[in-house]
Specification:
Chains: A alpha/beta, B mainly alpha, C mainly alpha
Order of helices and strands of chain C: HHHHHHEHHHHEHHHHHH
Largest interface: A-B, 41 and 44 residues
Number of helices of chain B: 12
Number of strands of chain B: 2
Number of strands of chain C: 2
Radius of gyration of chain B: 20 Å
Strand content of chain C: under 5%
Strand order of the largest sheet of chain B: 1-2
Shape of chain C: globular
Distance between the termini of chain B: 38 Å
Oligomer: heterotrimer
Distance between the termini of chain C: 15 Å
Structural class of chain B: mainly alpha
Number of helices of chain C: 16
Helix content of chain C: over 70%
Structural class of chain C: mainly alpha
Largest sheet of chain C: 2 strands, antiparallel
Shape of chain B: globular
Chain lengths: ~400, ~300, ~350
């Protein structure tokens, strides 16, 4: 069924593309992207690709990108990097030297971005990326890399702070909190681990379990048994979509009672749809939530974006639109804005315009630091409460109260 | 190092954990044993080393998952996967395998590897690369202060695996076809001389293997999860088990399957779950080494 | 005829030199083509000529990457600190440090891999046929899994090496010629080797190891030497790849068992096992097929590749050279005579 709907969506996208192309006589801005359509990152790679496509379509419908009084539409050449870094780097080079792409959109995951960034940097090709959050990307002095998302050590660090607050409310010291960490052995998740262990160390917390999940994870009961024995107060799991799915399922099966459980990629793994009540009271970090009050003239508010996207990509009908998709769209929007301000197709002028970006979008504020990461948008932590994702932290954005301890 | 020592001390501090690890290991080991038995069959009967074994398992899982998505009861998945994978196995036999039997030993290994790549990718194109699982919605039983938990789904899975294994054993022992298969395994030329249609036996054996794997996959999707690219880890385990147990040694295959399941769980507990695959592969190397030393004593080599 | 052959070699060498300048946009693909030729030729040393089908040669590629990277980093910085920063942190390499590290690293990678080949070979050469294939595959998988859990060398993060100092287009050409140099050396080396007594001995092992043993050939020693030589070249190629890729990680780029590890075998089968030119022809065909499907069959490329493997193995196992040998025996007959004539000159 899913396959059918994907097919029909692709078909629909194609017909749209052709019918519209015939009417509008706009020029073309050629973007390139090596993205994971197969391999272990394919789920989220496709989320990101859909986000790009939606953004491009919306911009086209709204009259295109106006550069120096002439209208243009984006066109992207995609290659499949198979979720492999060396492949990604080769493809980036191919995009630049053979397809003569002057502007790049990022791949999915920090690891892939890490593999591609040295290439784009060497060729001085601007790359706006939406899916590489590892902070090791932003301390290398890259000048042509721009990331619309918050860096990954922030993903779950706020959960540590939250656990400390809860402990203090109970009249205990923050340092009495015991933390268990289980993250996948890949650059993104290891970064999350770094963020969490730094925060835990700062607050004097003890890390009682610190394990790495294998890439072909299908069973984490060994870790959960240790969780039962060592009784941590906070359990952190990060392993892209499959890590989230496995964790939620087995936490329920093994009846794990940890007061606070925080994971990543809840929406991408559709844990509420798949496991129902089992996912309740789990904290999920997110770059973006459709309930937030961000807004822009093109995509409307965050919730309008979500509705519009679901209409265009019907396979998301019964799911949450993952933030991976929203930030991919935001990356396209950032390009539109930069091109219009640069008023030129020259890649260095566009780069300068990109670095001066100060934009409010449905996805949140976007302003780049000198290193290229977005410093205008915080991460939020949502809790699954009765099957709904409610923002509980940070307090400035919280719409609901935290349920603690987890049942 | 500290962590490893800490993990070992946990085993002594809470002895009941050992029981849980062994139980977990046996449950997954039963499914490893099923696919390993299929491998031992095709290896022994037609000298085909099937590296696509794990992908048959995963395909079976997807058959069952697809049924559930279309509103059929989950338990129906096991027999349906058995039948569907039987058919797919037969087609693959006719197209590919029938041409690699009795060829260079390396041929079947590579040809089935090519098959494995194709199957994984076709599954990815059809169902996407998400991990999928089927939720039976049964309760989980808890013992020993909740330290040991046995999901009823897992129990059902193990029960079905046992039933399937028993059926296959009885079939191989008492039916005409079973006898023909065993005869062909012993000496295919002699079997042909005695009037056994070995071509038919080969086709049947390979389809049976594929069907057994499919059923195992249908059980796995109820208890764990499947993903298009997970095939290789089941293939590796099947090879470990068959290498350890030898061909045509069913009790050995079952024992080795359960043992490897348990050892892997111990490895995951002591060294960390990141080492689970490494533990499985190291076991394979260890088994090969032990067999090698045994053979060297007899001035022979392992071939 | 001897003249013809000289002209052929001269043409190929000239093309090797001109190619990166004639097709500047395909620099990386051409370099990868040489890599494929190197791994195919060295795989054929044991697989085709000696009858030992290894599925674990990728082990030397991955190990070569790591050894080369660690040597070049270790000469300048503390490796633990460097990998801990996971490619972050500002670690500068001067030109002398970069090129010196690359030279010593690549050489060290080759030597280290030779030594490991002897160690692993001592343990695994008692295995025959499929067991040898599975055993060596196991070594490669285990190595990848263990390295990915080894934090000192970066674990799952992998290692990020410094970017080529200077112009990237020049860098591309430099890497191309590094691979090409190794590739040409391998070819010249094996061409010479197969004509010697040593070549005859390993062929004897392939044809009947027991008889070869009985004839007084110290089979284990020959097998170890052959594998060590193959490992030397693969290790060096891995070392160069590490610098070319800049960032690599254990499971997908270094110990990529089910990619390059199998591709090299398919290349050899496609071209023709146990022939001198087979691996080269196979590598070229395979590489072209791969690049074309990767470009035009997005999503289906792996299906096409799997199909190629199945079809090659099942229907076309003698490969291009085997097929030619069958169709045009006189071509090969003449060549052999020529060689004898040449040697007796």
């Amino acid at each position: 069924m899913k396959k059918l709907s994907v097919l029909s969506a692709v078909l629909a996208a194609f017909t749209l593309l052709f019918s519209q192309g015939a009417i509008a006589a706009c020029g073309e801005i050629h973007l390139g992207s090596a993205i994971s359509l197969t391999g272990k990152y394919a789920t989220n790679g496709i989320h990101a690709k859909n986000g790009y496509e939606y953004g491009i379509q919306k911009i086209k419908d709204a009259g295109g990108v106006m550069v120096d009084g002439k209208c243009y539409n984006f066109k992207v050449t995609y290659y499949d990097d198979e979720s492999k870094g060396d492949r990604g780097a080769t493809l980036a080079e191919r995009l630049i030297s053979q397809d003569k792409v002057q502007f790049m959109l990022g791949p999915y995951s920090s690891g892939m971005t890490k593999a591609i960034a040295p290439v784009t940097e060497k060729y001085k090709i601007p790359m706006v990326e939406a899916e590489g959050a590892s902070r090791s990307l932003f301390n290398k002095g890259y000048k042509y890399l721009f990331a619309v998302l918050s860096t990954s050590e922030q993903y779950l660090a706020s959960a540590v702070t939250l656990a400390a607050e809860m402990a203090e409310k109970q009249g205990k010291k923050a340092s009495s909190v015991k933390v268990a960490i289980a993250v996948e052995n890949d650059p993104f998740s290891l970064d999350i681990r770094a963020g969490v262990s730094e925060d835990a160390a700062r607050l004097g917390m003890k890390v009682v379990i610190d394990e790495k999940l294998p890439r072909d994870l299908s069973d984490m009961s060994a870790i959960l048994t240790k969780v039962k024995l060592l009784k941590p107060d906070l359990l952190i799991v990060s392993g892209h979509s499959k890590g989230a799915a496995t964790a939620v399922r087995q936490i329920d099966e093994q009846n794990i009672k940890v007061p606070m459980i925080a994971i990543t990629h809840c929406e991408a793994a559709d844990v509420t749809g798949k496991f129902g009540d089992a996912a309740n009271d789990i904290l999920c970090s997110t770059q973006w939530a459709e309930t937030l009050a961000y807004k822009d003239p093109l995509f409307g508010s965050a919730s309008e974006y979500e509705m519009g996207f679901k209409k265009a990509f019907t396979e998301y009908k019964d799911k949450k639109v993952p933030y991976q998709t929203a930030q991919a769209t935001a990356a396209v929007y950032v390009y539109k804005d930069a091109f219009e301000r640069a008023g030129s197709m020259d890649k260095d002028k566009v780069r300068d315009a990109l670095s001066a970006t100060d934009l409010m979008t449905f996805y949140g504020g976007i302003r780049f630091s000198a290193a290229g990461n977005n410093i205008a948008k915080p991460m939020v932590l949502r809790q699954i409460q009765d099957g709904k994702y409610n923002v509980v932290a940070p307090s400035a954005f919280a719409s609901h109260k935290l349920n603690w301890p987890r049942k | 190092m500290d962590q490893i020592l800490g993990n070992i001390s946990l085993l002594f501090e809470f002895p009941i954990v050992n029981l849980k690890i062994v139980l977990d290991g046996i449950m997954i080991g039963a499914l490893f044993a099923l696919s390993a038995y299929g491998l031992a069959l095709v290896w022994g009967v037609m000298n085909v080393k099937n590296l696509a074994q794990g992908d048959f398992v995963i395909s079976g899982g997807y058959v069952s998952w697809w049924l559930v998505q279309h509103g059929f009861p989950a338990l129906l998945g096991v027999p349906v996967a058995f039948v569907v994978m039987w058919g797919i196995g037969w087609v693959i036999y006719k197209l590919v395998i029938s041409r690699v039997i009795e060829r260079d030993l390396f041929t079947s290994l590579l040809a089935t590897f090519g098959l494995a790549i194709m199957m994984a990718q076709i599954l990815n194109l059809m169902f996407g690369s998400d991990t999928q699982s089927v939720d039976l919605g049964y309760e989980t039983l808890h013992f020993a202060d909740g330290l040991i938990d046995v999901p009823i789904a897992k129990l059902i899975g193990v029960l079905m695996a046992t039933t399937l294994a028993a059926c296959v054993i009885i079939f191989m022992k008492s039916s005409r076809m079973g006898q023909a298969i065993r005869a062909t395994a012993q000496d295919s030329r002699a079997a042909r001389v005695m009037g056994i249609d070995t071509e038919k036996v080969y086709a049947f054996t390979f389809s049976l293997n594929s069907a057994i794997c499919g059923a195992a996959g249908a059980i796995i999707v109820m208890v764990w999860l499947v993903q298009p690219f997970y095939g290789i880890s089941y293939s590796i385990r099947a090879f470990v088990i068959v290498t350890a147990a030898g061909l045509g040694n069913l009790p050995g295959v079952i024992a080795a399957g359960l043992g490897i399941g348990a050892l892997e769980q111990y490895g995951a507990h002591i060294f960390g779950i990141g080492y689970q695959q490494a533990v499985a592969v190291m076991l394979l190397l260890l088994v090969l080494l032990i067999r090698l030393i045994q053979q060297r004593r007899n001035r022979q080599v392992l071939k | 005829m001897a003249k013809n052959k000289t002209i052929l070699y001269a043409l190929i060498l000239t093309f090797t030199f001109i190619a990166p300048f004639a097709f500047p946009n395909f620099g990386t693909q051409l370099a990868t083509l040489w890599l494929m030729i190197i791994v195919a030729l060295t795989w054929d040393m044991t697989g085709g000529q000696m009858g030992y089908n290894s599925l674990g040669n990728i082990f030397f590629y991955g190990t070569g990457m790591y050894v080369a990277a660690l040597i070049s980093i270790g000469m300048v910085y503390d490796i633990g600190d460097y990998t801990n920063a996971a490619g972050g942190g500002i670690y500068e390499f001067s030109d002398a440090q970069y090129f010196g590290g690359m030279f010593l690293g690549v050489l060290g990678a080759g030597l280290f891999c030779s030594v490991t080949a002897v160690v692993i070979g001592t343990l695994t050469f008692g295995l025959r046929g499929p067991y040898f294939a599975i055993g060596t595959l196991g070594v490669a998988i285990a190595a990848g899994e263990l390295v990915s859990n080894w934090d000192w060398v970066g674990g799952g993060q992998g290692i990020a090496l410094p970017v080529y100092p200077g112009d990237l287009d020049t860098g591309k050409i430099v890497f191309y010629f590094l691979f090409a140099a190794i590739g040409v050396s391998v070819f010249v080396f094996v061409k010479w080797l197969y004509g010697t007594r040593f070549g005859a001995a390993i062929n004897a092992i392939r044809d009947d190891e027991e008889k070869a043993d009985a004839m007084g050939i110290h089979t284990l020693r020959y097998k170890l030497y052959t594998w060590a030589m193959a490992a030397f070249f693969v290790g060096m190629a891995g070392g160069v790849s590490a610098f070319q890729l800049i960032h690599f990680e254990p499971l997908e780029s270094a110990y990529q068992t089910i990619n390059l590890g199998i591709f090299m075998v398919v290349c050899v089968l496609l071209g023709g096992k146990g022939t001198l030119w087979g691996p080269v022809v196979g590598a070229i065909l395979f590489h072209v097929f791969k690049e074309v499907t990767w470009n035009y069959l997005l999503g289906w490329q792996w299906v096409a590749l799997g199909a190629l493997i199945v079809v090659t193995v099942v229907y076309f196992q003698d490969g291009v050279m085997g097929w030619l040998m069958h169709k045009r025996p006189e071509w090969f007959g003449i060549r052999i005579e020529e060689k004898i004539a040449e040697e007796t000159k």
